Amino acid sequence: MNKKITIAIDGFSSTGKSTLAKELAMHLGYVYVDTGAMYRAVAFFAMQKGFIRKDFFDKESLIKSLPNIKLVFKFNSDLGFAEMYLNGINIEKEIRTIEVSNFVSLVAEISEVRSKLVEQQQEMGKNKGIVMDGRDIGTIVFPDADLKIFMTASPMTRAERRFKELQKKGDKVTFDEVLKNVEERDYIDTHRDDSPLVKAIDAIEFDNSNVTKQEQFEKVLKLVKF
After folding, report:
1. DSSP state of 70
2. DSSP assignment of 121-166, as one string?
3. β-bridge partners, 44
4. pTM, to two decimals
5. CA 114 to CA 140: how far, in whole Å?
6. Contact in structure between 91 and 97 (CB atoms under 8 Å)
């Protein structure tokens, strides 16, 4: 295991990309990067500044404010993974709400936002030994990644998973709200002009609708070649 590789995991929302990526990184001793958290952080920033709310989005103000956004991952040894910090403040909990989920795909459509974050992501992975998950990792961020995985599952299955996850956290949401969010994000992610969600030609597709997390982890681990 002397040779380090780059592992790119892409796919639809709530397919468990981050869970799989974290497990692989921990098992391999690699760096894990949750690019979704980075876009969520920018969406949260836009919400805080009043740039985005229901039926309103001041894109120009967000674009002008991009130089004022500093994103850093800091490893939390108690939790076993890195948390997202926005301008020095831990916002890991805040960015996982349904409210942020409702806006993140709209923010991720903006080319200037994608350009800023992709540059940071490529810098993080320049030495390999990294597992990164998102929407465009295997197509844009690391088109030459050694292993590319594309994860999918039915919208209903993904909504059920997300709903249970939010309920555990104490968030008061309805299943219909979550399903609507999943379907809307799917549409925006696959139809945006800049870096839409698509399966890379050389990516291996995993439909995990009827697969346990352990089964999935074991199958993907077998694909890791050094």
Report:
1. -
2. HHHHTTT--EEEEESSIIIII-TT-SEEEEEE--HHHHHHHHHHHH
3. none
4. 0.86
5. 10
6. no
Contacts of residue 32, Cβ cutoff 8 Å, sequence gap at least 6: 21, 22, 24, 25, 26, 81, 82, 130, 131, 132
Question: Cβ distance 8 to 144 under 8 Å?
Answer: no
State the Cα angle at 171 between 168 and 176, rounded to 5°: 100
Q: Which alpha helices (DSSP H) does the chain contain, by range? A: 17-28, 35-49, 59-65, 98-108, 111-124, 155-168, 175-191, 213-221
The tokens describing 160, both together, are: 């059920």
> Mind listing the pLDDT tens digit for each residue in 154-209?
999 999 999 999 999 898 899 999 999 999 999 999 999 999 999 999 999 999 99
**129-159: per-residue pLDDT in tens?**
999 999 999 999 999 999 999 999 999 999 9
Q: Residue 37 class from Cβ within 10 Å (0-12 exposed, 13-18 middle, 19+ buried)?
A: buried
Pairing of strands 89-90, 81-86: antiparallel
